[in-house]
Amino acid sequence: MGEKSVAKVILPEPTLRRLPWYLAYVRLQQAHGVEYVSSTQIAKEINVDASQIAKDLSFLNIRGKTRIGYEVESLVAELADFLGFGVEHKAFMIGVGSLGSALIQDQGLLQYGLNIVAGFDIDPTVIGRSIRGVPVYSMDELGVKQKELDTEIGVLAVPVEFAQDATDTMIACGLQAIWNFTPFRIKASSDIVIQNTSIYAHLAVMYNRLDERHRLLK
Amino acid sequence: MGEKSVAKVILPEPTLRRLPWYLAYVRLQQAHGVEYVSSTQIAKEINVDASQIAKDLSFLNIRGKTRIGYEVESLVAELADFLGFGVEHKAFMIGVGSLGSALIQDQGLLQYGLNIVAGFDIDPTVIGRSIRGVPVYSMDELGVKQKELDTEIGVLAVPVEFAQDATDTMIACGLQAIWNFTPFRIKASSDIVIQNTSIYAHLAVMYNRLDERHRLLK
């Protein structure tokens, strides 16, 4: 698989975000001993058009066989390989408050290839401690630790008012990708990879839709 | 503010997801003693077009004054009020494994109006324990506890293979909104509110973009 060109394809973000859904579903099928799945079956199960699924998978050069569909085992392998979940990516947690320490404790991240190897904070009561074996350092040590551990990814979970400062420090210290969990829209030069995961923004959508439902039921 | 009709507006999801960014930014300005901000200023800071911001805010009947902009204090109040972050929404955590217990420990959710009042699991080693004061019950007790506590929201963080079963149970027990943290695309009738927050899917995007960066630098 390493020799294929698929790993070099730059996919549209919506496709990239759907691929893990396909992987989760076909892994389930694999666990049940299913050998082949069609895009129509996947479509029915996960609420995405069959044609969209076929198109997404064709980006990875994965094509189903007529009337048989996709071979489950190789589909799982190719998706997992492409998504990089099987490869260790070292990361720093920037901000070890409530959300930051919760994320360090989530073993799920490791299953998806993210290994948080150290935390950083400015709070002296937290610095020097360790969470599930992950040491917490002062932000002043970020540059030294980045060189020592050769880490590329920073997970940002600081209070909003420190988000941009922390971002600037992370970039100055050599981090190349920032996974931003704050609701603040951080700015960085275009060569820095930024993923925004403002989990709280999803709450706003949920509350609004619940309000709508209540009105409809009145 | 309660008499205004804005709370009844059903906004497009992209708008709803941007509003918390505006709120985070104008709260910062408020903390700095700033009295007015223009959409152009907000735009520059958070990378959204000024016209989009003006349009988003006009959905809420918030309009800036010519050449002065938006009054920061009332903008903060109206956004916070509309988003519902100041109102307590009770929720159950379904699945108290690694991610589930991490989310229970994240005090940030409470700041955004989500109060996780109980956890549920099928693992006998977890049932009966409590996490930060939040009791963990057996899934068998979900219906009884839903009636007792009048909870509408279920936060789903079970292993993929149990995601659909747990969803069906949640709905049968009277929950009306599901915040799905699993990478599985759960199915429910259209009157159930579903928000998917597959944080691991964001990792796929980040890894892919980092790969791209590595190739460009070679």
Structural commentary:
- 2 copies of one chain form a homodimer.
- The first copy, chain A, is globular, with a radius of gyration of 21 Å.
- Chain A folds into 2 domains: 4-83, Winged helix-like DNA-binding domain superfamily/Winged helix DNA-binding domain (Arc Repressor Mutant, subunit A, Orthogonal Bundle); 89-201, NAD(P)-binding Rossmann-like Domain (Rossmann fold, 3-Layer(aba) Sandwich).
- The first copy, chain A, has helices at residues 13-31, 39-46, 50-59, 72-83, 98-105, 108-111, 142-149, 163-172, 199-217, and strands at 36-37, 70-71, 89-94, 114-121, 130-131, 134-138, 153-156, 177-180, 193-196.
- With 218 residues, the first copy, chain A, is an alpha/beta fold.
- The first copy, chain A, has a 7-stranded mixed sheet, with helices on both faces. The first copy, chain A, has a two-stranded antiparallel sheet with strand order 1-2.
- At the A-B interface, helix 1, helix 5 and helix 9 of A face helix 1, helix 5 and helix 9 of B.
